[in-house]
Here is the input.
Amino acid sequence: MAAPSLTLDFVLALYRKYARDLERVRAHQRRLHAGRGDVHAEQWAAYRMLAATLGALGLPAHWKRRLKPQVDDLEAEITYLLVRELRPRTAAEIGADRGWSTTWILQALRDNGAGRLTSYDLRDYCTRAVPAELAAGRWTFVAGDVTRRVDPMVVGIDFLFIDAAHTAAFARWYLAHILPALRPGTPLAIHDIFPPPDKLEQRGESGVVREWLSARAVPHFTVAPTAAPEAHRRLLALKNELGLARPIHWSQANPMVFLRAP
Here is the structure.
C-alpha cells in the first residue's frame, strides 16, 4: 500500500482519530511545562526579552535544566500524530535543545508501544529535562557534532526531526548528506522554515530550504499562518470542535514544514 501523502486532509483525519489520546498527551505536556518550564512567565514580552539576553550572555545553570518549547502547539501535535500513525521503529532528532520536541516524540513512541528515538545535540541540556519515565527503554542521547555522524545516524531511520543550527551552511549540509541517504518516502519535519514576516530571511536555513523545495517541486505541508493561512484556520477550528483549543505554549508561528524524503 502506498504511503499516505502528508496533506491537510490527512492531518485533519489524524486529529479526529487520535483526539482522546491527544487530549491526554496535551494535559501531560501542560503539566510538564508548568513543572519544568516557564509556562506562565513566557507569555510576557519582557520575560522573553530577558531570556534572550541571558541566552546571549550565557544562561545561568538552572535555566539549562528548564524545558523551553521551541515548537508551537500545532506543529508539536502534528509531530505526535504522525509518529502515532506512521509508527516508526527508528526515529532521529537533530537538535534536541532542552527537550520539548523530544518529549512529544517520546510520548508518541510510548503510546505506540514500540520504537526508539536517538537525539543529537552539541549540549546535553535535554537530558536534565526529559522525564526518566519517558526516556527509559526508548531514548538515546548523543552529544557532539552531528555532521560527523552521517553514516551511522541515517541507517534505518523511519522518521527524522530537524531543529538545530539555523544557518545556510547547515541546511546545505543536511540537504546534501542526510536527505539523499534516507529511504525515499521517509517522513521528516524541519523547523523554522516558514517563520513570521519579521523573522523571514533569504540567506539562512529557511531561505535555502524554501528554495530547495521550490526548485525540486517537493510536496510538503505546513500550518504556518504566513504560508498556509487556510490550513492554520481549519486546524484551529477543528481543535476548537474537539475541545483541544486551550494553548499550551504562547507562540502561534508554527513555522515547521513536513515532507517525505524524495
Notes: The chain has one domain: 8-37+67-260. The radius of gyration is 17 Å.
